[in-house]
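A note from the maintainers: we've had questions about how concatenated examples are separated. There is no special marker in the raw files; a new sequence line simply starts the next protein. For clarity in this README we add a label.
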Amino acid sequence: MTPDTSSVAFSVLDLAAVAQGNTPNATFHNSLALAQHVERLGYTRFWLSEHHNMIGVASSAPTILMGYIAGGTSTLRVGSGGIMLPNHTPLVVAEQVGTLASLYPGRIDLGLGRAPGTDQLTAQAIRGGRFGGVQDFPQDIQQLQTYFSAANSTSKVRAIPGEGLDVPIYVLGSSTDSAYLAAALGLPYAFASHFAPAQLLAALNIYRQNFRPSAALAQPYVVTCVNVIAAETDAQAEYLSTSLKQFMMSVVTGQPTQLPPPVDSMRTIWGPMQQQAVEQMLAYSFIGGKATLQADLQEFIDLTQTNEIMAISNIFSHEARLYSYQLLAETLQKVTRQPVASLVAQ
């Protein structure tokens, strides 16, 4: 059965990737410029990740960046993709996100992940004496829901601001574990297929088969995150993609780097094993001109029946990244059979 692609929404995930020769300051300004750009193009939401101790990723404080992006835009939904909940207490998250939702009503999303977003040593430095972490993830989500509820007004511990606010919560995952949790809680599910593609289809199947309707969501809702690098030609897009491939190779080899400039060929940069590992991680990457993107995205939508595609474009040149999202928007108008601006979801 072919899904109704006319209702698929499209969004952006930003890691605040620091390009070589750049600074976090310039990176954040570029993130805001990108958000303003995609808002004009009619994208649905703009999410920011949480990573720590990574020289090439500046998004260690997503709630601060969310406020910066929301303050510089007017209609775009802004959220976390995600806040790594084991790194924080639910009350602090509720207060911080509640503050944002009070400043920018109806525009703030809360995506929650269970991974540390870093190495174990750094995770210990973040969490201090807090134990449990990943094991407490389901209970922490429910505690967050309690803090946001109006019914919590009689509790001795309250989230002010936060209490009584409608903040959509999304469960993030890169394996099947969180699929079961999102289904049991009746929450929307966002899968990190941009770097962990192996279990995407199994996770979506588990989520949909086990979904229980809740006060938050009546039917399953799936967000799939994918890499997108669009250019005028397939050859130009392949050239730009070498920055992403080098960046992911640095993750595979444990030698972190900032986002490097593109190269003419990867042949002299990686070996067969590194190439295989990176290409497996980037299996759901859409690289090419508009015709290639249109065909590949339609096939992906048909395969996954996703409700929303969230695109991440780690491109060295800021101008090329802006243009990539413009070309993607133009492509999506053909894939979805209607202007992207009409797909904005609440």
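[label: protein 2]
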Amino acid sequence: MDERAAVAKEFVGARAEDFPTSPLYRALRPVVAEQPQILDMLGYRRAGQQAPYLFFGAVHHLVLGGAEHPLRDFFASVVGDAARSPEEAGPALIDFCDTYRPELDQLIRTRLVQTNAVRRAVGLRYALAVIAETCDQPVHLVEVGASAGTLLHVDRYRFRIAGRSFGPADAAVTIDSDWRGDSLPEMGVIPTIASRTGIDLHPVDATDPEERAWLRALVWPENSADAGLLDAALAGLAADPPRLIAGDGIDVCPDLGRQLPSGEPRVVFHAATRMHVPPDRRAAFDQAIDSMGERGPLFHVWLEPGHVPHEGDTADDRPVLRFHGPGTGGTQPLVQIAGHGQWLAPVDAELGGEA
């Protein structure tokens, strides 16, 4: 299969992202798959970057930045409820790409998919509550693929789910999620976070307006509530930034594991990060994280597509938050969770088409 065909399959193949909360992107996927010039342009993206996320992020970035073109009329993030029907957007997208090809090409060649889906913090909060059942010590929190580090402030956010609230009552960021099950597990007690560190190929400075604009563009156009959460979370990061390390997690994790205080537990988390690691480097990615347990108890938590399972795991197309730690005897599924944290459900819940 040539490069063009491989990129096209990312938009319309069996494993293509369906953009469940973006009717516009869903409607435009097959349009992109039929455009050789766009597919060829995406062939120059940086290694491991998922083409649909990168392409639509680049287009959205230009639209939000003020590009004068009829395509903007299809973006709810620009015109609100007046947005035109997504099914009519194809011709406008093709013309937009012809008009702004140099700008798109530059973004595709240089930018990374660094989505800060703040609602994913509810999954990390859930995992920390599980960890607290067996760990009564402060933990060192590490996120691989942290981007700006929004999830590293998980203990500073308020969560509202199934009529209950967890986290500081005066939090500047409040996250609402649905619970699709009977009784919600306890999420009120989590370990104290002794330190927080993010690792990213290109850490994002939350104080830089241009960097924040790129992160905003990665929020799908219909998701205005998510955009508001991102703005609030970035304001908190700008006021009190966590430690962010620039580099490949494969290289950084072993050194960081040795730097953390010996014997003290560490929680390593990643969401939609491993999926961007080139396939021939994924085993090394897993091993690098495992190495962080050589000098202290390691709790490893991840939310990644089931079709790119960690080494030793089997494929599972359900959206499941997974975990392994001291005494777990291998990988343990914790909870089903929407990719952007909009809902959670027990692992054994039958969700049918809702997943």
